[in-house]
Amino acid sequence: MPAFDHQGLRAKIAGAAVSLSDNAIAPALVAAAIGQGGATLTAHGALSVETGAFTGRSPKDKFIVRDGLTADRVWWDNSGAMAPAQFDVLLNDIERHLAGQALFRQDLLAGADPDNQYDVTVLTPSAWHALFIRNLLIRRDDGIAISDRAMPVTIVHAPLFQADPARHGCRSETVIALDMSRNLVVIAGTRYAGEIKKSVFSLFNFHAPDQDVLPMHCSANLGPEGEAALFFGLSGTGKTTLSNDPNRPLIGDDEHGWSAKGVFNLEGGCYAKTVNLSAKAEPEIHAATRRFGTVLENVVLDAGNVPMFEDVSLTENTRAAYPIHVLPSIAKGSVGGTPKTVVFLTADAFGVLPPLARLSPDQAVYHFLSGYTAKVAGTERGVTEPQATFSACFGAPFMPLHPTVYGAMLAQRLEQSGAQAWLLNTGWIGGAYGTGKRIDIASTRRLLSAALDGELDGVDMRFDPLFGFEVPMSVPGVDERLLDPRQCWADGDAYDVQATKLVALFRKNFEKFGPEANADAGPKLQMAAE
Predict the structure, then answer these.
(1) Are residues 375 and 256 in the same domain?
(2) Which cofactor does it need (predicted)?
(3) Is 237 annotated as a binding residue?
(4) Which domain, by its residues, includes 45?
(5) Active site positions, annotated
(6) Judgement on whether residues 27 and 105 belong to the same structural domain of the protein
(7) pTM attached to this predicted model
(8) Do 147 and 36 share a structural domain?
(9) Does 217 carry a binding-site annotation?
């Protein structure tokens, strides 16, 4: 297939606009967003916006074009399929929809490693969305090395366009469609800005393995010798909080690649959750929400335009989007050396998992494929127990290939690097949610520090009979009873019942990966029943 003419498409769409704001910087975009309506300056200077009906991603409205490149490679159980002809009709219809509108164009980069870099152009009629993606991708004046061989990507964003399922082959009036062969993305019918960011990650996840790069939904920071530490975890597990450490420069907040050279950030910004944000618990993130140019999504303001981070009346998924360079400690060039430590974060609301466990390489791949956390009982009537959540590779919605492809790459990277993997539970101890208590952040930080600094290399470990991993018997500065969840329960038999339930959930979830995945590295149901 001949190379697609991205420059021609970009010029065609821009040329049909009534006006074009080309690579405007924050002050111009803030002014334009306020002028368009629906955006407000907070008392501290950030830009506050609401995303309307969609306050999160729409995974069921995401489609990949099924063609010769993708047909036999994409994990279709996880992605909707769209015919090439339907994608072309959708793109043409959106082009006509945007014609005559004022457009904002941002030419940005994804990938801090010039050997694995994307030349990304976003075209949108919304000024605040242009500011959002400018904050989150790499700006060309950020000091990142720019490749003249970067892969071109064009994202056409039309938040007010309503798709026609019969005409466009989608499910509803909302559609996120990715053409992997031509690196084109169309986003329509939703104002939730995270769709723009995650579409870049989805493209990267598809192409990176071909370049022998493991794409990862994780945060990363640097140790004293320049070695990287990786933090995988679903929402609410502490990934952003724990990777933001003034003593460990941050490589990136959310999306990375692990190549033969080391780790590189895909982005140039952070998209941090702000629910219950405080200056005491997360000072760096809190400070970033008070700067001019930061975009606050769905954060309720008081009468004086001061953010009320504890107010979740719009959504619990409140966010702040800001450039990474506003943080006090960041890694030069947004790159790091070969990882020494890999941390899988979970917030176990069942009260079963220990606060820290050492994983063998096989166990690391098992927990990577499982991608487990547990959400607390919600407001839905009749829901009184924790809800297990499994998201393969800690980012299933963004993984176009089968999870075992990424799992095999992780196994190879762990073998080559000798990196040690840990499971860090930031959830409940002494009982499930509602009975037990959340593991205190001071103990979590102490355990993490011990794992990162090598303090646990020679300590005594106990074998966990349910999950098969090793748990430290003692860690300086941490109550020893905390390290054994069963001891923390008032009723040991009740712990056993809960543990058996969680083991069964793990095993049931892992069945979908088939015989090629190593289920023997996971928990043993028969042991839990003894």
Answers:
(1) no
(2) Mn(2+)
(3) yes
(4) 6-335
(5) 57, 198, 217, 235, 239-240, 254, 319
(6) yes
(7) 0.93
(8) yes
(9) yes
